[in-house]
Amino acid sequence: MKIGINLLTLTQERFGGVEQYIKNLIAHLADSGENLTLFLFLSKKMKNIFPPHEKIQIRTVKDPAQIHECIRQCQLDLWFCPVHKSYIPNIRVPCIVTIHDVLHTAYPDFVQGGREENNRYYHLFAPSFNKVITVSSFSRNAIANQLSIPKEKIHAIHPSAPAIFDKVPADVIRKKVKQKYQLPDTYAIYPSSFNPHKNHQNLLKAILILREKYKTVLPVVLTGYADKKSGIYRSVLRFIKEHSLENHIRVLGYIKPDEMPSLYWNSSFLVFPSLYEGFGIPLVEALKAQRPIVCSNRGSIPEIAGDAALYFNPESPEEMALKMKEMLNPLIRERLREEGRLRSQQFSWKKTAEETLHVFRSVIKKR
């Protein structure tokens, strides 16, 4: 099986859920034991992002117009597009795309191009998709309902957390990370990019309510890629300064992947106030790190966290504050930690790769 994977629009400007999905899925497809070759089509500046592997071949392409000839030369059996809006028209082999979510239909103002431009893309190209892979049952239903893609063409396959979360970080590493970032003994962690649907403003309001109304101080550590010019990022810093929350909220920005497990293990719990998620990898990271979760009840979040979380309405800072206050009870945290330990076993990249290969085979056999 020769699989071409279109990564021409992949960048290293940020490394969020989609990038994690791509990197981990490709690594586990290559290690699956399947008789396959993965041809990764990348821009020249991205050619070294994947480590050498006997089943991976790198193809650098300057012009997408070269793709059709490359597909013919490589004698590909399948064309896979796991990056948003990366389909190339008139591909002469079966094509599978990954659609992670349809955020643009729920919150069009939060997405570049809005509802109209994104719907135009899917209206134009979706009939050419042999199959669609998505990352949750929630997204499968939303794609079918919002994009009018037949549900039988859509396969929901859960991703997992990065492999580094499969091991408990050594105590010495955890202490080193704690000292490096001068972290308190008790804190909630929220790893997220500073995008509108991530709902930082309501989280900040909830922290303020805890302090002012309930006389409860809860330190929160924010991590994630931040464009310093971002209006969301600047508004977070402004809110912290205006309400004298500098001692309560730490904005760490991008953290190296090998330090992230320690940030989780050192924390008391994950707070996840997102308004919309197609999946939500931080939820699985918390499950793998045996951290309890207090989170939004929107999108795919309840599907992923299950019984291992306390839920709140993300549009209510008051409700969010009360649920975080409840999470300070060690008995509740211990119950959720055990629920999370059991639930974490449902997620693995090996399983993700096996289910993805099953979809690949189903398309190739029909040729």
Q: Any overview of this molecule?
A:
The protein has 367 residues and is an alpha/beta fold. Helices cover 40% and strands 15% of the residues. It contains 14 helices and 13 strands. A seven-stranded parallel beta sheet has the order 3-2-1-4-5-6-7, with helices on both faces. A six-stranded parallel beta sheet has the order 10-9-8-11-12-13, sandwiched between helices. The radius of gyration is 21 Å and the shape is globular. The two termini are 13 Å apart. The mean pLDDT is 92.
Widest β-sheet, arrangement of strands: 3-2-1-4-5-6-7
Range of helix content: 25-40%
Beta-strand fraction estimate: 15-25%
Tell me how many strands there are: 13
Low-confidence parts: none
N-to-C span: 13 Å
From the alpha carbons, calculate the radius of gyration and give it in angstroms: 21 Å
Major sheet attributes: 7 strands, parallel
Number of helices: 14
Draw up the topology in text.
Layout: E1 2-6, H1 17-30, E2 37-42, E3 56-60, H2 67-74, E4 78-81, E5 95-98, H3 103-106, H4 114-125, E6 131-134, H5 137-147, E7 154-156, H6 171-180, E8 188-191, H7 200-212, E9 220-223, H8 231-242, E10 249-253, H9 260-266, E11 269-272, H10 281-288, E12 293-296, H11 301-305, E13 309-312, H12 317-327, H13 330-344, H14 349-364
Parallel strand pairs: 1-2, 1-4, 2-3, 4-5, 5-6, 6-7, 8-9, 8-11, 9-10, 11-12, 12-13
